[in-house]
Each structure stands twice: as structure tokens, then as C-alpha cells.
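Worked Example 4.2. Consider the chain below.
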Amino acid sequence: MRAALLAAALGCACAAASASLAQEAIPAGPHAPMPAAAPPPGAVDPENTPEAIGEWGRRVLAGEPTGPDAARAQAMRAGARPGCAAPEDRKPHGEVTVGMGSGGYRGAGAVMTAPIGDCAQVTIAVDGARIDAPRRRR
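Applying the procedure from the previous section yields the following C-alpha cells:
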């Protein structure tokens, strides 16, 4: 009797939970509304116009860089060095790490980065660790 009562209560609880967790139906088909993320009809992407595509083709055939590298290449030809600013403090920076364990781990490490000139840096890292499992005596 208790098992039947428990099974009936569990069944009702599962039915109530599944009804409360159900998601709404997503409309599909020819009469479904357009999703909100879609661009409105008639909107034109300026990069996909025939003129923009033709200009891109002319640049590719001429061997000029296109896309995100085009502005950087043009600045390099003009003598600018984008992204090569001298660091403000000209000091090396780094960190030291130390680890330990209760019978089975040791570790130590360090890393240092220092600027070289206006556009370069050097990074040196050293790391050491040792993992020995404790030996049990019988």
C-alpha cells in the first residue's frame, strides 16, 4: 500500500515538474515570423555592395593587403610603427612561484620579462618541481 501511494505521489510530482519546465514552441515554416536577430528586409551591408566587392578585387589583383592588415600596412609604408611604443618604465618585471606539499611535492619557479629597445622584449622562465610519493613501511 505504501509503495503504491509513494509511486502515485512521485508520478504526480514528475508530471507537475515537467509541465513547469516545458519550453514554448518555436514557430517554423513559411508563415512563421522572422527571428529578431535577422537584419530587416532591404538592409544592405556596405561591404557587400558591387562597388565594394569590385574595389576589393582590384586591390587583391594589385597585390595590396586587404582586410584588417590594410591599415597597418599603409601606416608601415608611411614610416609609422604601430604597436611599437616604448614601455613607460623600462624596468624588468616578473614573478616567483613556490610550492610545497606534505611529503610528496616541491616546486619553485621564476619568470622575468625585460624590454629591449622600443619594439621588443625578452622573457626568461625557470621552473623546477619534484614529486615523490611518501613511502609506507609495512
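The helical segments are 2-21, 50-61, 69-77. Residues 9 and 85 are 71 Å apart (CA to CA). Compare this with Example 4.1 before moving on.
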